[in-house]
Amino acid sequence: SEKLIKAALMKSKQLFVLCEFYARIDPMTPHDLQTLLLDQRVGTDETQRETFLKPDYQKLHDPFLMRDMERTTAFILEMIAENKKICIYSDYDADGIPGSVALSDYFDLIGYSNYTTYIPHRHDEGYGLHTHVIDQCKTDDTNLIITIDVGITAVNEIAYANSIGIPVIVTDHHDFAEQIPDAYAILHPRIGDYPDNNLCGSGVVFKLITGLHRILAKQYTTATIQSSETIQTLITGYDTDKTTTRIKWLLDMVGIATLSDMVPLIGENRILAYYGMIILGKNTRLGLQELFRDSGVSLQNLTETDIVFSITPKLNAASRMAHPIDAYNTLKTRSMSDAVVFAKNLNKLNDDRKKIVRDIMKQVDQKLDLYTSEKTIPEIICIGDSAWPVGVLGIIASKIVDKYNKPVFVWGSGGDTLQAKGSVRGNKTVSVTDIMNACGDVFTHFGGHTEAGGFSLPLSDIHTLEQLLIDAHITVTGESELVIEQKTIAYDTELSISDVTVEHYIKVRTLAPFGVGNPVPVFLFRNVNLISVRQFGKTMEHLEIIVTDGIRQVKAIQWYADKNSFNTTLETGNSIDLYGEFDYSVFRGKSELRLKIVDIG
Q: What is the DSSP string of 118-161?
């Protein structure tokens, strides 16, 4: 009948509207989102996807595939068995320091205590292995120096150590020149045929530790090892079960270093970072506990962002603002009272560092305004001031790269009237070490890897540095002119505000840990409406907006930003395209799923 037909049509219309409503609320299921992200990052091969989602500790490569591993481990064990003195010499950053903690912890674990640690002062000594330390080792009757995250360019220094009878074992991952040092042994993932060349310095140290463990646990043996009575003595007294378990707890240090040093989170690095995060979530280090507590970090919801933005800067603040041994002591201490004091000190140093960085960036922006107003920029940005403290130059360089997308050389002297020191950051278009190599003899010292490095030169030569770098860039790349290009914003896929759910967040987190080679997924929320715009923080330095798609609304934040930080005017009622990451905040017992603003178009 006509009534039945009308009723059916009405039901159909209601069903259509209801389906359309739910399609807008949840146009992509959490499973579909995970599948899409895996397709983009891993591909469609099921085995590779399974490996990616479930990293397997047992699939770490045999440490003895690394060149010189047997020679290195056998010699160290001989030193330990004879109670000879070893100096652990590490770099002063959040790769070298955790590496020195991990190796010294292993020595403690096996009952060897005749070692010292040395970390050079960033300002007074600078990067690298130094001859005055080698002289001190000679005075102290040191029998072996083991470097961590440093040493692969120390050709002259190691030759000097050899000349006074101190063997050096280099563990490093940085770029090296054609001539490598004549060290007793070198552990480096890119020297020899090791299957994974992406390890950071602490990653190499972990391979060394597992190599030592495999010998003592009778999991690796050769005629050389079997014939050594001193090594056999160590093997006899080795508690394999206990040590096998405790070694995995050292992955907290390796995890921090792997995330901090911005190495690609693929292959072994993904495994090391993945298990490192698990150990960090069960953290037993008193100093780290205090750093986490002071940062308001929830261990139950720990992410790699908490490490990189809350812990790494505090560890690096020690060398930037004082002495790196402060960071080492914080990670190493077993005293609760010391942990509180050490952590508060690092927090204060980091706060001081933040203020200095803000002040210098104001000067940088003023100096570079001319480039942006003319829409051109040199091939290389070279900028500095003799008053700028050396310890914060790497942070300044990174911020300039983020803003201008060019290789950056930043120099300062911190009041030194003779020597300028600097930091370099790349933009993934050219190796910064290749550029420095092409600059002739202008540098007193330089080193690093493809994307980052450091240098020093006489302050009197600083006025020629920019042109030398520009010429070197032309030599290396063949490009003579670069123009500031219109920035394109990369994103993984489009979502609606209604997709900002805990279920979607959980699926995204299955791809963690995120970092270089596996970046945090960025989503485009197109044509959303601004409900509110406000500043927050102690000095109102952070931005918060609330947006809606007409169905739901969500909060989005950006640190150190305001409504003028983007190309689009942020006014209530305006429509914007929001590029953001999922951000699950747990602070003072309150949890909140929100977005972190990447950009606004």
A: E---TTTT-SS--HHHHHHHHHTT--EEEEES--TT-HHHHHHH
Residue type at 11?
K
Residue 2 has pLDDT above 60, yes or no: no
Residue whose entry in the numeric block shows the structure tokens 């995204």 = 508
Q: Which of 11, 36, 20 has its CA nearest to residue 495?
A: 36
Cβ atoms of 551 and 24 within 8 Å: the answer is: yes
Give the residue from 233, 184, 223 showing the smallest Cα distance to 77.
Answer: 233
Highest-pLDDT range among 284-298, 323-337, 402-416: 323-337
Q: What pTM, to 2 d.p., does this model score?
A: 0.87
- Whether residue 513 has a cis bond before it, omega within 30° of 0: yes
Exposure class string for 332-369: b at 16+ Cβ within 10 A, else e:
bbeeeebbbebbebbbebbeebbebbeebbeebeeebe
Which of 259, 295, 290, 293 is closest to 276 using CA atoms?
A: 259
pLDDT tens profile 521-545:
999 999 999 999 999 988 898 999 9
Residue 182's contacts (CB-CB under 8 Å, 6 or more residues apart) are: 155, 158, 159, 162
pLDDT of residue 479: 58
Q: Residue 419 and residue 439: Cα distance in Å, rounded?
A: 18
Q: Rounded to whole angstroms, how far apart are CA atoms 88 and 108?
A: 13
Rounded CA separation 433/473 (Å)? 11
- Residue 378 contacts residue 473 (beta carbons within 8 Å): no
Residue 448 to residue 461: CA distance in whole angstroms: 21
The token duo for 253 is 């240090």
**Main-chain dihedrals φ then ψ at residue 568, nearest 5 degrees:** -100, 135
Q: Are 90 and 99 in contact (CB under 8 A)?
A: yes
**Of 385, 329, 328, nearest to 356 (Cα)?**
385
Give the pLDDT band of residue 19 (cuts 50, 70, 90). Answer: very low
- The 10s digit of each residue's pLDDT in 127-161 is 899 999 999 999 999 999 999 999 999 999 999 99
Q: Which whole-number Å values give the CA distances from 12 to 5, 6, 24, 28, 278, in the listed order?
A: 10, 10, 18, 24, 51
Q: How far apart are CA 292 and CA 587, in angstroms?
A: 12
Query: How many C-beta neighbours within 10 Å does residue 507 have?
Result: 19
**By the 8 A CB rule, do 77 and 212 touch?**
yes
The rounded distance, in Å, linking the Cα atoms of 427 and 399 is: 11
